[in-house]
Amino acid sequence: MKEIAKVIYFDNAASTKTSSENLSLFMETSANYYANPSSHHSLAYEASHKLSEARSDILKALNIKGSSVIFTSGATEANNLAIKGVAYKYASRGRHLITSAVEHPSVLEVFKELEKEGYEVTYLPVKEDCSVDIDSLKAAIRKDTILVSLIYVNNEVGSINPIPEIASLLKEYPKIVFHTDASQSVGKAEIDVSEADLVTISSHKIYGTKGSGALIKKNNISLSPLFNGGGQEEGLRSGTYDLPSAVVLSSAVKNAVKNVREYIKTLTPLKDALFTYLEANPALYHINSPKDCTPFIINFSLLTKKASVVVEALSREGIMVSTRSSCHEKSNDPSHVVMSMFNDEKLGSESIRVSFAPDNTLEEVNYFIETLDRIIKELY
Ligand code: PMP
User: Fold this and answer.
1) 293 an active-site residue?
2) Which of 17, 244, 317, 332 gives 20 to 30 Å between its CA and that of 233?
3) pTM across the whole model
4) How many angstroms does the Cα of residue 202 sit away from the middle of ligand 1?
5) Percent of the chain at pLDDT above 90?
6) Exposure string over 153-163, b if 16+ CB within 10 A, otherwise e
7) Digit-coded pLDDT (tens) for 148-167
């Protein structure tokens, strides 16, 4: 492979680099609090105290009251627990579920499974800005609806759903549980998840560690567990507590929430520079992200070249971006998100996602633009 001077990492929506602070925290917690928090001796009590602290810090940082934190192996597990947990627990109330067409596979695939089990699912369409239309949500609600699950910030195009507005609308329907997958929104937008019944978060999207996340659950909501065992996490997620990951997740959430305004301020000029270039070349690119997307995630489609070829060419030049999202292991299908927005196979198949972290710079974006422009014009 050609030697590259420096890697420009623009694939942060797929996973971020664990911060050195969080790496140290992980190691220190592993070294100093190794006892099992469920045991009954003083070392275990210290570990258990640390775990409680991590839970309350997460709730405080996200301004959530009357809830508990269920630590999981990431957002995929949290989404599965939320959706199946509600579907099975409240099946006697009704078997109608609502989600949107642009959710992450860890949501959509769960709904597809539940359809096979006899549940009815409404997949709400989205507007051209990729957000859910509140009127179509209202129209979809039925007497037997038990769950609405909607993404906060879309992982492919960075669009932002009006989650607080939807949560207050759903307050009028006390039998409907409201879940939001907020894993790409923490630290990327100024969010309000205080009124959602269930909230999914993930550590490796915010400079924490991989394989760690949580489902935050209002106390009046019950769930069926995905698996059974020692009864940890209120019986909802058995398995020995992973204290180092929990402590890192709490530190990652605290930092992301504390710094989000600063992050947005830092990244807006980067987003603007990329938008300006793409807009100036309408014969080459179609911008898929809405204008008001988070500055962390920008998605566009190539009109004259193949996205997979261009992403490889960029990688050879040291620039890491994604075609659509990295969550579709082997699929070559067009992006379901871009398809839902524009209903155009070409746009759906040739999309590129550029996703920033706050340590990315305008120089890097300018270098990316120059390189992309050259590649697009040189490739035949
Ligand atoms: N939801 C969204 C919106 C995501 O972007 C991702 C990660 N691509 C997930 C869920 C799954 O997260 P995890 O890797 O923590 O399971």
Assistant:
1) no
2) 17
3) 0.96
4) 7
5) 94
6) bbbbbbbbbeb
7) 999 999 999 999 999 999 99
